[in-house]
Known about the structure:
The chain is an alpha/beta fold. It is 45% helix and 18% strand. It has a five-stranded parallel β-sheet, sandwiched between helices.
Amino acid sequence: MTIAIISASVRTGRRSHRVALFFSNYIKENNLADVELLDLNVYGFPIFEERLSSMKNPPAAALQFAEKINNADGVIIVTPEYNGGYPASLKNAIDLLYKEWKRKPVALATASYGQFGGAQVTTSLVFSLWKIGAWMVPAMYPGPFVQDQYDENGIPADKERTEKRAKFFIDELLWCMEAKTNMEITNKTY
Length: 190
C-alpha cells in the first residue's frame, strides 16, 4: 500500500510542512505503508488554467503529480489554515486533477498557530474534495500550536501524545484503503 502525503503550503516560513514530515516519518518508522511526500512548494504549479486531462502540452511536473496521486492507495493532505480557508496552492493542485481523486481515500490533517489546529479549514476543503468524488476518511488530525509542537524535521514535542492521535488517524485511513481494495476485488469477481 502507498500513501501520498501532500504538503500544501508554499508560504515562506511555513510550519504545516512539519506535520507532513511527521506523518512521513511515522508511517515509515512503523512500516504502515510506502510513502510519497508531495511538496507543492517543490512542484510550483502555475495558476490553474485547465484540468490536466484537457491540456495540450501538460507540464512534466503535473503529469508526475497526477501519476503519484493515481497510484497512491490513499492520500493525506496536510494544510495550514489561512483566514479560515486553505491555500490557493492546494486548490490549484486539487483542481488540476479529476479522475485521479475519484473514490480515493483522502484524510485531512490541518495545522495552525492557534488552539483550534486549523479546524475551520475543513468545511471548505471537504466540500471541494467531496464534489470531485474523493472518499473522505472519517477522521481528522488537527495540529494546534504547530510552531511549538513540531520541530523543523517533523519531530513532535510530545511524541507519545502525538503518536497516539496519529495512530487513530492513520488507522482510519488504512481501513478505508483496505476497504477500497476489497471492493475493487469483489467488483471484479461479479
